[in-house]
Protein: Transporter
Amino acid sequence: MNNKIWALMLLGVMATHVNATENGLDTFGLGAEGIAAGALPPAGVYLLNYYQNYHASEFKDGPDNFHADVNVYIPRLVWMTPQHIAGGQLGLYAAQPLVDLRLNVMGMSDSNSGLGDLIIGSMLGWHKGNHHSVAALEGVLATGDYEDANPQRPVVANLGKNYNTIRPIFAYSYLQPQGWEFSTKMSYSFNSENDDTNYQSGDYFAGDYAIGYQLNDQVKLALEGYVFKQTTDDEVNGVSIGNKGQALSFGPAIQYKRDNWSLEAKFLKETEVEHRPEGHSSTLKLVWAF
Structure:
């Protein structure tokens, strides 16, 4: 999923561009997935509910006196069809982030609440014993609220990016029914240009991971986190400006499941950050099977 929340939809537009991807913004749901990330459910309709609070009080290699607080709720509707392609079960999904953002940069502040960028995708899932995998293709559409910065309003708390993203995804889970788990969800994002600013955010790799242990039928404990690494430079008016961002996070997680629902909670702390905000996030993920 796409939630730092739906994935650092947190940053507004600043008058100068000094960060990795435009304003340190990305749309991969950093840290949103973890336990059983590569194991798709049987045919049916599912509602995944993500809530995340992200707080950052520093922008690495960026502006001073930086502070951001963001709360995001992301409902994600998933339809696992009975159809199979290349041996994999076909699934379709859509997610619409609802964002509340409060931003302060160098003594200037702004806040905003509303809809973020719409996410749509399709996926195929395979199962073989304890091994589960997913291949998906996701699009992030520039539908969220956006306003370019100007001298009268140099800091804008934007909820959307004003550019589109295409993202291939691969996820894998090794699940022992009673015992250990290893899961990961990896993606590579290709960004279009922001036509209002002529800023081209660089492409980037992002991945979530989870190492867990099943205590009993209901409870699983895990170490979770994510990796973010920008692979190409940002550009302004076709001129490369560098600013390749990166981040690593880790923290504890717990999952509780019963019958047709499960609840996962985690706390993740960022480190090794470059050209991005550095902070921490708390996430709840509720999955409901209809």
Remarks:
- The radius of gyration is 19 Å.
